[in-house]
Specification:
The chain is of the alpha/beta class. It is 41% helix and 17% strand. It is built from 11 helices and 14 strands. It binds nicotinamide-adenine-dinucleotide and uridine-5'-diphosphate-4-deoxy-4-fluoro-alpha-D-galactose.
Amino acid sequence: MILLTGGLGYIGSHTAVELIEAGYDVIILDNLSNSKIEVLDSLKQITGKKIPFVKGDCQNEALVEEIFTNNKIDAVVHFAGFKAVGESVKKPIEYYDNNINSTLALLRVMKKFGCKNFVFSSSATVYGRAETMPIYEDFPTSATNPYGRTKLFIEEILKDLYVADNTLNIAILRYFNPIGAHKSGLIGEDPNGIPNNLMPYITKVATGKLEKLSVYGNDYPTRDGTGIRDYIHVCDLAKGHVLALKKLESNSGLVTYNLGTGTGYSVLEIVNAFNQVCGNKVKYEFAPRRPGDIDVCYASPEKAQKELGFKATHSLRDMCETSFNFEQKHTKN
Ligand code: NAD
Ligand code: UFG
């Protein structure tokens, strides 16, 4: 049985589907701080299985122990955490508390129960401003905001833990920019309030819930002046977790992988691709650069491809279509 913390969230819910389709049993722990209980019904519709769910906080060690007592947990995939960069600058204590203490609590319980396999949701943000592209896993790491620092600190904690106990198997997965949704349109990215990220903002403009997109900066040293990122379909990203778990089953020790496609698209390229799918509904205007943004960021996916057999297969069009489909079918606000 695989414990998914934060398994009702955007990436966790898609990973639950992929794990079940790959034959794994999963149990979800989520405190619903950034997700809705309805996702559980959607997961049942998609997979045909009723996934065991515990509503609660990872920091509640007694509760996590209860999960380990009642189930044979072979591995933990740890998605739970806060993830908004801007909010983390305003609420550093909440971010350090939730992200770091949740991880420590889980690791303590895993140790107590002899559970050896841990997959951690890290981020491309740990590369800071990389000097060259594509980004390889051995590039230097740094952080420019509290959210990024929580990811960096947790990575360091995991490395220290592995030094102390090299019988552990730990996969640090550095995600690039997940977008898209499950093809059913039943699960997808559904942020509270006005979205910070590009794709959820675009889908709300395309469905008339927001007026126009601000493109942050058209004077970057890129092919059209707008920022370039490595957008990866969330279902491809989810499959990466299945492969990472299989890697841990082979007693891998501590491993670190980029999960990206290796291809960068600019903001305008994303807008144009989306406009082809939705019929030119995305109005935009250029706005000043967003503080803290970098010009270009894309992965080398080589290591994950070679060692995990990971390869992203969904096209940009598919990413746009499924994002639009989810927004149209699912969200009301
Ligand atoms: P999400 O907010 O949709 O999912 C996180 C889930 O964790 C939510 O359902 C939330 O309710 C839950 N949660 C938060 N704190 C909890 C706690 N203490 N106990 C129990 N549940 C808790 O976010 P996501 O986009 O699915 O991201 C998942 C993970 O991937 C996060 O750790 C995030 O930092 C990381 N990540 C995300 C991105 C991205 O662009 N989405 C990029 C890189 C890394
Ligand atoms: N952008 C706009 N307008 C918007 C939103 C974004 O032009 O309204 C631009 C940004 O300037 C950037 C690109 O679209 O060039 C992507 O921005 P996102 O906010 O969607 O994503 P980021 O690359 O800034 O960051 C995301 C997550 C981070 C994570 C990082 C790498 O928010 O937490 O991907 O995984 F660390």
